[in-house]
Amino acid sequence: MTRPVSLTVGAAIHRAQALLREAGVDGPRREARLLVGLASGLDAFLPTDTRLSPDAAGRLEVLVARRAAREPYAHLAEEREFMGLRFLVSGAALIPRPETECLIEALFRDRPARHILDLGTGTGAMLLSLLDRWPDARGVGVDRSVAALAVAGRNVTALGLHGRALLLASDWTGALRAAPTFDLAVCNPPYVRTDEIGTLDPEVRDYEPRLALDGGSDGLDSVRGLLPRLVRMLEPGARAVFETDPRLWEGLAALTEQHGGRDISCIPDLAGRRRGLIARFPGLAG
Ligand SMILES: C[S@@+](CC[C@H](N)C(=O)[O-])C[C@H]1O[C@@H](n2cnc3c(N)ncnc32)[C@H](O)[C@@H]1O
């Protein structure tokens, strides 16, 4: 193997940008700067004649090749910021998205919850950001993916939330006692229609877990499956929040209403689309 030659920051950005552009990566200059920063530990806004060490140049070569193969930047950095907190990420769990932050921000504008259920917790982003903000709350995060739960477990530790977050391997609520226990349920289910998965960006299609994406033939399979049992686990007056594809919002609202959801309203994403749904459940007797 040839030893990578020492490069200036400017030349490194220029070279990385060209490779990323050729690979079809969006915003190649910005990404090239980020990769130079990641490889070198230097601020990539340093004077462009700053020299990279040969080790940093070698790391950069590997990172650029991975990004040019369309591996997401968050997998290379092994972290993603969500609600101002640092979450560890890997290919085992969905990378937390800004759309999901809109749902959490809407909850922060309302009263704190005490017992939270996060269905399909992934990295734990939704549950752990709520627990971080609401010190008196406790919560349960379930996921069918044991690999995703391992990532969530590392985030519980990194965020110092031991003792307040319980993580369980479960097919939705299957492993939980069907008793009215929770005053808030949050759920970002897989909601991509099976026939649309092939049209997603390679970063998502080829690197994020299919279990986190595939919502079945109409995108609503998960919610349809989990709602009947979920409603038995909510205290009277509990809230439930779901993320969805804006095109599926009406269908999700109809399903929620069928299962007793009331005061259904929409949480818009940053582009003003109907990304989140919030409903109140009066309880089985209500
Ligand atoms: C879209 S991801 C959401 C991850 C995380 N809540 C977030 O918002 O970043 C959906 C999650 O649901 C999980 N999941 C899919 N089917 C499931 C099932 N039957 N039971 C429990 N979890 C499931 C996936 O493993 C994945 O972690």
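^ S-adenosylmethionine complex. The mean pLDDT is 95. The first strand starts at residue 79 and ends at 82.
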